[in-house]
Amino acid sequence: MTRAWIDCSAGVAGDMLLAALVDAGAALPAVRAAVEAVVPGEVALACEEVRRAGLRAAYVTVSPARHDHAHRTWHDVRGLLTRAELPAPVRENALAVFARLAAAEARVHGTAVDDVHFHEVGAWDSIADVVGTCAAVHDLGVTGVTASPIAVGSGRVHTAHGELPVPAPAVAELCGGWRVFAGGDGELATPTGVALVTTLARTCAALSPMRLHATGVGAGTRDVPGRPNVVRVLLGAPDEAATASAVLLESNVDDLDPRAWPSVLTALLDAGAHDAWLVPVLMKKGRPAHTLSVLAPANHTASLRDAVFRLTSTLGVREHPVTRSTLARGWTHVAVHGTRLPVKVGHRDGTVVQATPEYADAAELAAARALPVHVVLTAATTAAHNAGLTPGASLAALGITLDALPGRA
Length: 409
Fold this sequence. Notes:
This protein is α+β, with helices and mostly antiparallel strands and 409 residues long. The chain folds into three domains: 2-238, no CATH class; 244-324, Alpha-Beta Plaits, CATH 3.30.70.1380; 328-398, Roll (Ubiquitin-like (UB roll)). It is built from twelve helices and 19 strands. It has helices at residues 14-23, 28-38, 74-83, 88-109, 123-139, 169-174, 191-200, 261-270, 301-311, 359-369, 373-386, 395-398, and strands at residues 2-7, 43-52, 55-64, 142-147, 150-151, 153-154, 156-159, 162-165, 180-181, 186-187, 210-219, 230-238, 244-253, 275-282, 288-297, 318-324, 328-336, 339-348, 351-357. The longest helix is centred in the N-terminal third of the chain and has 22 residues, at 88-109. The chain is globular.
């Protein structure tokens, strides 16, 4: 898997993000082909090396190939994207980005979404930035994106609607739920850039542990002394041996029917939690209660927080960043009472640390054979031991290749 982390600490614009992805290895011909499929003959793309505050960066020039561009509405742009011959992920991401842009502009100007005109971002160059960026992400094989807090700037900016404060209203609308800071003078983040980041990344997080493959640096138009006006993209594979970031969500609940708790825990696990559990506590005035704890992957924090509010009667959720060290794991099978039973194997670089039969499957087999569950679990543990799945054993020497089964953690 290839993960991307976008550094927006100096701001972000669509052409800057596109340039960073090209600099990281995305093929410019693939980007051009995608843009051409949407607006044939309208846009020319070129990439060159520049300097920003003394540092090297890539700069993508998006220029009109003709001079009769019409201002397009979201309805028009959606039609172009729907009809264009694009890879499905490129089309879906581009539609999602423009939908966010249109919703933000409609909210700011009090108009219907389909009637929004993209004159402020420019229909043809915003199409090039959005489609080009989505095509670059696809060309790089990126399977997940996170991004830093966004520097939005300060002061005032001149727009088609007059002089507006920074961040401009559309940028502020698009940044809802995202961490932002000023970061410098002037407009540092554009609507197109913010829409791309908050759609493709969805999660604002620090750089997660990864094995770094490539770095791309995309330049903005201005060269600001002492502050490189660039967006950076870091590409890599998740480092399974490294400490993974997570968030611990907690809430004390004293007024939920206890019979509901099993379904709550199951729903949270199904929603992507690493783990979820209850601890009995005694609250003020001697009231018995439970502390609900949810260990959430960083990119699932928001959805799991929403799930806690939806599934319980709590009025608040505490959040603590935590670190989580995990063994690489996979599944193999052993023969027990004439049935193949799954065994979870935790290992370090192919050396077995532990092997544990799956309880749910053991319980199902026990019921089918009219046996006590502990008898089946003991038989499975013995079978795993006889197969050589003991601490310190080499999976390669045993000739065992582990499988990843859907729904297993």
